[in-house]
Design a protein that fits this description.
Helix content is about 75%, strand content about 0%. Helix 2 crosses helix 3. The protein has a domain of about 60 residues. It is built from five helices and no strands.
Length: about 90
């Protein structure tokens, strides 16, 4: 009975992934979720469920903007002129 529950959960996750990422096809989801497993022929439903859960979480984290675009642009801009930043730090001493 547990096997069917895990199987149903996998299908449910696939439906959620389709809803949340409509531009990704099922092949992409399967390939990326199971990329660490190599040959998946003997992979248990429990392990596949774990892989899809982990993959979905990674997609959600990647979608969250941890830093806003303005901050990221400022960091990149500052990195382009590291010599100037070091000069400014010397002024504080």
């Amino acid at each position: 009975m547990k096997r069917n529950d895990e199987y149903s959960q996998i299908l449910s996750l696939l439906r959620e992934l389709k809803k949340d990422h409509p531009n990704y096809n099922i092949g992409r989801h399967i390939s990326l979720a199971l990329s660490d497993y190599g040959d998946v022929w003997g992979t248990s439903d429990k392990e596949v469920l774990f892989a899809f859960t982990k993959y979905k979480t990674q997609l959600e984290l990647d979608g969250d903007e941890i830093a806003d675009a303005t901050y990221v642009d400022k960091v990149v801009e500052d990195a382009m002129d590291l010599d100037h930043i070091l000069d400014e730090e010397d002024d504080y001493e």
